[in-house]
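Before our next group meeting I need something from you. Please put the record directly below this note.
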Amino acid sequence: MSKSSPRAKRLSSKTVLQIVTGSIAAYKTPDLVKMMKEDGAKVICVQTDSSRKFVTETVLRTVTGERVYSDLFPNETPWGVMHTSLADLADVILIAPASANFIAKLAHGIADDLGTCVCLATRRPILIAPAMNDHMYTHPLTQRNMAQLKAIGYRFVDPVEGDLACGRTGVGHIAPLAAILESLVSVLKTGKKSK
């Protein structure tokens, strides 16, 4: 009986900078990190303040094996300018889950925390996986904000219909983790950078 050869690691030697925002879907971050690491990636997490309500820094540090970043002006840092150093370190920026608030700030060029500053400072590809209430997702302002980001080269993994934190079922549930991983691989293959 012949042994099957191990599957090639599609993210080998790639660094994924994952920005975790304030959505209930943040609780899925450890599983997504594990999937990316199993596919060969080095994963570094940046947390927004509100994301800490759903997943702790300790959990993210444990699953990534890396320091977790959240402070724009930390007292102790291995780099001089945190946001530009992180922006240059990554091969791709993954915002998952992406809240309506974070998407709105990106669309309007607001850089008031580490995550938004990294996005403005990078020229690497950016992949966004929205997760929010269905009314928030379908709201014309959110749709306009996403269209603006798509127009400058940001890529999206659309949310799906599912159970939402509010108790309803609707579109806004984060995409399946496997779909996010496949989109990430695709973005890295095309090498398309944000403008």
The chain has one domain: 15-190. Strands lie at 15-20, 42-47, 92-98, 126-130, 155-156, 160-163, 169-173.
